[in-house]
Amino acid sequence: MSQQLLQQAMALHQAGRLDEAEKLYQRILTAAPGDYPALHLMGLLRLMQGRLPEALVLLQRALAVQPGAPETLANLGIVLSGLGRHDEAQAALDSVVRARPNDSRAWSNRGAVRSKLGQSTEALADIERALALDAGNLDALNNRGLILHGLGRYEEALAGFDLLLARAPDYADGRHNRGLTLRELGRAEEAVAEFDRVIAAHPSHAGAWVNRAGTLWRLERLDEALESYGKALAINPGLPEALESRSNLLWTRRQALAPAIADLQRALAVQPDLPYAAGDLLQLKMHAGDWRNFADDKAKLDAAVRAGRQAAQPFVYQALSDSPADLLACARIFAARKYPATAPRPKFEARKPGPIRIGYVCGEFRAQATMYLAAGLFEQHDRAKFEIFAFDNSRNDGSAMRARVTAAFDKFISIAALSDRDAAARIRAEGVDILVNLNGYFGKMRMGVFALSPAPVQVNYLGFPGTLGADYMDYILADGVVIPDGEDRFYDEKVVRLPGSYQINDDRRAPVGVTSRAGHGLPESAFVFCNFNYGYKILPEQFALWLRLLGQAPGSVLWLLAGDPLFAQNLKSEAARHGVDPQRLIFAPPLELEAHVARMTLGDLFLDSLPYNAHTTASDALWAGLPLLTCRGTAFAGRVAASLLYAVGLPELVTENPADYERLALTLARDPALLKNYRDRLKENRRLAPLFDTARTTRQIEAAYEEMMARRLRGEAPQGFAVASS
Question: Which CA distances in Å does 12 have to 46, 173, 280, 702?
Answer without folding.
Answer: 14, 22, 42, 71
